[in-house]
Structures are given as C-alpha cells and as structure tokens.
Write a structure and sequence with these properties.
It contains one helix and eight strands; from the N terminus they run αββββββββ. The chain is of the alpha+beta class and 128 residues long. Strand 5 and strand 6 form a beta hairpin.
C-alpha cells in the first residue's frame, strides 16, 4: 500500500508541476475573471515526508459555477513546497481563467524562490 501511495504522490506532484508550468507560461494570456467563493473544503493527510492538503472550492461568476481542486504539500525538511491561494467562502476574488485551471495569484507576483504557487484545476463547470 505504501509503495502505490508513494507512486501516486509522485505522479500527482508531476501533474501539479506541469499544470503550474503551463499556467505560468500562459499567465499573460488567461481571461481575467472575478469569482465569488461559495464553499471551501480542506482535507489533510500526513505522509512520511510531510503533509498533503487537498483543497476543493466551489466558485461562481455571474454565468458559470466551477468546481475547483488544488493540492499543496508541506515538507518536513523544507516547509511548504507547493502552495495554493488561500480562498475563503463568501469572498470575491480576481483571477485569470485558463483552459483547465483558474489562477488566483497576482500576475505581478512571480516568485523565483520559495514554494511553487499552484493554480486551481477546473474539475467541472456548469452554466447557472
């Protein structure tokens, strides 16, 4: 079980890094949107090297409801290595929408050190 879990975590990290890289490369091209956050759920799981947190959020624009997911990781040795934008229910946020993700990080905030800033993956979307 531990081996398959470790393999899953490595695949998840690779997918997240690739998602982040594509979102970062296209950051200037994303569609600016404003969303209202309806729900946020956070589930944490301790592993040998740190803590994984899976964040699920339901957000909406005037015409679309999105179900989003983002995973972050806090390493025992290094602190946060993957971090998601902190969203709170009942608040409005400016973001940039891409084909498969929504990025809540400001376009001017391009960190070269510290944790990777993750975009939220669009799991589903439906018209209001």
């Amino acid at each position: 079980m531990a081996k398959s879990q470790s393999r899953y975590q490595k695949i998840t990290i690779l997918a997240l890094v690739l998602s982040f890289a594509s979102a970062t490369a296209a950051q200037e091209n994303g569609e600016p949107i404003t969303v209202h956050v309806k729900e946020v759920h956070r589930v944490q799981e301790s592993v040998e090297k740190g803590v994984w947190a899976r964040i699920k959020a339901i957000v909406e624009t005037k015409t679309v409801i999105y179900s989003l997911e983002c995973s972050e990781f806090a390493s025992v040795e290094k602190g946060y290595t993957l971090v998601c934008s902190n969203l709170s229910a009942g608040h409005d946020y400016s973001a940039r929408k891409f084909e498969t993700s929504i990025n809540f990080w400001p376009t001017s905030k391009k960190e070269t050190e510290g944790p990777l800033q993750m975009a939220y993956e669009i799991v589903s979307e439906k018209e209001k």
